[in-house]
Amino acid sequence: xxxxxxxxxxxxxxxxxxxxxxxxxxxxxxxxxxxxxxxxxxxxxxxxxxxxxxxxxxxxxxxxxxxxxxxxxxxxxxxxxxxxxxxxxxxxxxxxxxxxxxxxxxxxxxxxxxxxxxxxxxxxxxxxxxxxxxxxxxxxxxxxxxxxxxxxxxxxxxxxxxxxxxxxxxxxxxxxxxxxxxxxxxxxxxxxxxxxxxxxxxxxxxxxxxxxxxxxxxxxxxxxxxxxxxxxxxxxxxxxxxxxxxxxxxxxxxxxxxxxx
Length: 261
What we know:
The chain is α+β, with helices and mostly antiparallel strands. It is built from eight helices and eleven strands. It has three domains: 5-70; 85-187, no CATH class; 201-259, no CATH class.
């Protein structure tokens, strides 16, 4: 019969863990706790890769506090370096700000894994325009929250947990510059587009025969398979819409060209 007791893996801890009491320990063998194993290893703890790794709750709490302190110190240094020259503050109306976080996902608050990515500028603009949320540059999130360089349409953002947006002159200037470029890029975009907020569900279904959620699923499948790629003339998403408009309406290509510039 397997033993129901073992020692806490932390080198500095002498506690015995009762494996029948799940609320007294944490099993940290999974990838989600790689950061915790790295911290333990830096303190002299060694691991046997063939065995499960158990850490008592007291040690887990201690290391989480240390990790939080490191993150807060890193964030303080980051802010000090970016705000070394005092700037006037601008308050954005009806907009909320995600706190600057170095080691945690800016959406789900999970500890960042190796699959985490910096938020592309397109995603930051989507959040600002569509969700009234401002995210600092150089913020990271879990890769699952993105679809390519765009925000995953299934993501849910609860703005009640955020404070109103306060921008420095430099941040406001950069945001205006990005918005101006985005407007220029979209000026000649087709009227029928997955990311055109003026196209409602019924219009899209009338032209293509599919709901927006179905088209997003198709686009995600195509993007993941990498069988198509964007060109300087047309994106994969626009090509998908064009194809289904042709199949649904059988309009001539010159007529369809009006819809797609």
